[in-house]
User: Fold this.
Amino acid sequence: MKYLLISNHRKEHTTVMAEQTADWLQAQAIECDIDDGREEAYTQRYDVMIVLGGDGTMLRAARRYGQCNTPILGVNLGTVGSMSNIQASELLQYLPRVIAGQFTLEHRLMLAVRVFEDEKLISEFQCLNEAVIKATGARMLSFSVQIDNSRAYPFSGDGIMVATPTGSSAYSLSAGGPLLDPSILALVITPLAPNTMSWKPLVLNPDRRVRLRPLSCEEAVLCLDGQICLLSDQQRWVEIARAEQLLPLIKLKEKPFLKTINSRLRPFEG
Assistant:
């Protein structure tokens, strides 16, 4: 068996835990690699990936390895840890069950984001939470929004977001979008400060394709999960759809969605 441990080199405690976990696994005759974010993504095949960190580390792991269809266990060493299934203090307790395959999988929808120049594909990415096009300055953006091959509608505002059910509890929720159960399959379009009140958040069938074409903008930025930012211009447009692969997250214990959300939205209450 071969495992990949994913940590964050900027946070020493995750690096230390990755090394300790690797030593424990190797004592069980399991090979290990560690991806701490400083090098390119590994291309080998792994039986299990273990993410040691918070939601940011999980988002990076999903973007890097979401297409591999390898089970991923989230171990929370961060602040929120809404995508992690167990806490760091529980890892050694649950690792024997992971090795024995005694777990279920919860599949999460991811986004495939393609950037075109005219009709030429110039770059392609995946993300787990959301893809956002927004202004870099004080002026509004204007672009057309097209769903599949239907009529395109003009939009003016600070920006527009396409989110997954997992991402519906993050930036999209802060921007007034709906809260979705992360286990369902759907897309969410959330406008950012639209110029007209006719633009409201919209939940779509997951097989829709959303095309965003600039009409008038000095400079815009495309952000994926808030961690990758790419400058866009008027000659480029973006297509956002569901990714081919669902992200398989290991579930070792029940973590009710409503309980998790309630603890996040009411963090200062006893």
